């Protein structure tokens, strides 16, 4: 393998993982971020996101001299003795006006570095960008010698390092095949299937994949609703669906709705892209609508648990919310369904106190009270609502919680808890797509082979 000189611009979930993992593969990487405090912390080996293995890779790469840190994107090209050959753009592309991806930061960075890029280098977009962005970057650069390549990233938060080093596939697209191959060669040691294609196809693969995942989740949330109406159990239904290898067991867990920094913005951006191509992408529209409805459905469930009616008043009702991050294993609160449900509960007049193992009570990003543990959050609560599937919630002392609350009711929007454990502690339990039970259900059982259901 040839070790390459690489620059990474933006050191968030994607950029930091990219930089640290490429360094672990033997490449020399200089990481640039405009957030000076973050760069100072990284220089000291401090990683401020919750990602297993990332801090170790950062420390190893820094100690080996293969990872260095700068604050100006342009300064990334002045490091080391050999010129930077490949430059990754890993800056944010948040949801902008009308649901379009906001390319303001990305374009500003391209403008900042266009004259500073070393001759004959490759500029790679790893940020998620709409189809046509590669062509736009080529125009903005106005440099014949610099090739533009799309290399979308598919890592998940909470398993970012693992996903980067064990990818299902690598996608590289460009009008310049030689440049695409140079980028693909960076990952050669990973032995992953590699799709070499044109720029627009690579850009679309990213959106098409994320929107497919979002549709799968909205479908499963709709199946869960149907289960409730006809008396079926979604846990057994999805297990039975998932053994079909064309469907698979993963991404079949119903919940309070899908969220995070990617699926919501990417579904919106794909809708806008389709719209601009005069195509009404009704499936994606339905997935988004089903998701917003899911938040409201969770509030109705809570009303039912607390007042006995799906339309009962939540005014002055005290609710303990367990889980604020958009899924377990991350500290990311961006577009979290928990926050969407919490906002609806507050609008309905409820008094909410939350606990999340990854969110500090001193965190001032949140418009609600955060307790330092589940027992404090549950004090005098009319119901406990599980919103994020942190495994530690299963291990809570439920009899102790029963002694803290005003009414022993649990609404489990992730089907995380064992209803029989709760029943023993005196709680009523309601989940999503499952009959409300006091005892463990018989469950779908596999008579031969072994169950492999997982997210
Ligand atoms: N988070 C994910 O799981 C994930 C996965 C795949 C793809 N993506 C895509 O990757 C991109 C980045 O996402 P993220 O979650 O890593 O974002 P992030 O917000 O975690 O990190 C972005 C980083 O860019 C830095 N930055 C902002 N402006 C800059 C500038 N002008 N110069 C240098 N640095 C600058 C910020 O300080 C921050 O450290 C987005 O397009 C996103 O859609 C994200
Ligand atoms: O069975 C499931 C699986 C997920 N979710 C929810 O779906 C959302 C998204 O989860 P996940 O996809 O694991 O989160 P991300 O880390 O945002 O990863 C997605 O978005 C990234 C950014 O584009 C992509 O790189 C990843 O491939 C893609 O999975 C979260 O709210 C989860 O709680 C469920 O409700 N049920």
UniProtKB/TrEMBL annotation:
Keyword NAD included in the entry's annotation: yes
Domain of life where this protein originates: Bacteria
SUPFAM superfamilies reported in the protein's UniProt record: 6-phosphogluconate dehydrogenase C-terminal domain-like, NAD(P)-binding Rossmann-fold domains, UDP-glucose/GDP-mannose dehydrogenase C-terminal domain
User: Which transformation does this protein catalyse, written as a reaction?
Assistant: UDP-alpha-D-glucose + 2 NAD(+) + H2O = UDP-alpha-D-glucuronate + 2 NADH + 3 H(+)
Q: What is this protein called?
A: UDP-glucose 6-dehydrogenase
Q: Residues that bind substrate, according to the entry?
A: 154-157, 206, 251-255, 259, 327
The yes or no answer to whether the keyword Metal-binding is present is no
Region annotated Disordered, chain positions: 433-455
Q: Which organism is it from?
A: Amycolatopsis camponoti
